[in-house]
Amino acid sequence: MKTVGLSLRSLSSFPRQRCFARNHVCAFSALMSPPSTAVVYDQHGPPDKVTRLVEIPPVEIKQNEVCVKMLAAPINPSDINRIEGVYPVRPQPPAVGGYEGVGQVHAVGSSVNTLSPGDWVIPSPPSFGTWQTYIVKEETVWHKINKHTPMEYAATVTVNPLTAFRMLQDFVQLNSGDAIVQNAATSIVGQCIIQLARHQGVGSINIIRDRAGADQVKENLKKLGADEVFTESQLEKKNVKDLLGSLSEPALGFNCVGGNAATLVLKFLRNGGTMVTYGGMSKKPITVSTSSFIFKFILVCVRCSNEIFFHPLQDLSLRGFWLQKWMSTDRAKECRNMIDHLLDLMCDGKLKYE
Q: Which residue range or ranges hold the Enoyl reductase (ER) domain (predicted)?
């Protein structure tokens, strides 16, 4: 059988080990994982055409390794993109699918001292190959979490909630009473932004697409803490800032759609505001009007002798964010601390998915 995946190894050279004592030979079996079932792809392409289920034989658990029984692993759009071969960072096939998930420690190597059988763990940073029933990887890959965490949150905390958390921290200093604006508000990132912003005392303006059941969607988002929710057609008017009510003009906006939906985010931003793009669901480019670039900045009047000069203080800023790039720096401890913080909020019911 052909073995595939990132943690799979040929067992031909590890069938049995021997120890010698008092001129006697005693044989003992290496610590082995159970056989596993994995979702594998041998080439890039449409997931329904290139993936298949594969039975994987046991592998040896070395002294610094941990065998984890996966409990849940989500299907993220980026997982699909990796299989298709269009995501910037991806394993080379043949490979096991999946990038995040939660599991329970099944067995540990002799040198492992931070984890024990029964512990719940997640790969942190996320790790390729989570779509299999048992995974054997080094102890340092796994982060122990509270096993009372709802499984669906434990399995998904390392990508979408962490993206929301970082974007609220990294671009603009937000204070209580400030506001943000975003499209794709029904996405998991969008829902987390609403709740994490509210936790900071920051209001949110949320844009959703026109669709059947939009009123129910608005109600659900407001239950999560959204201040205002608008469909795209509601924002076709020229001056959308009339819709702000008691909210401040947003200094920060989030775009995950592109096209016209990105333009709507820009229309809400105050002078000198920042829009962060972290996705492109519509597959349409971001277009910025000439007036936004020319007039969306603050002018400061400076008198010099008998002449008056006007200088831009801060221009409209367009930024991008990719969590994997953020995690590629040496931030493992910081990342795990944030994950623990987010999981605490989830366990307390302060961060949830609709």
A: 45-277
pTM over 0.90: no
**What mean pLDDT is predicted for residues 92-96?**
95
Calpha distance 277→208 (Å, rounded)? 16
Report domain 160-321's class: alpha beta
Residue 147 and residue 151: Cα distance in Å, rounded? 8
Superfamily of domain 17-154: Medium-chain alcohol dehydrogenases, catalytic domain (3.90.180.10)
Q: Is the pLDDT of residue 6 over 90?
A: no
Judge contact between 275 and 319, C-beta under 8 A: yes
Domain ranges of the chain: 17-154, 160-321
Considering only CA atoms, which of 193, 199, 201, 196 is closest in space to residue 229?
Answer: 193
State the amino acid at position 143 in one-letter form.
H
* Tokens read off for 282: 């519509």
List, by residue number, the catalytic residues: 87
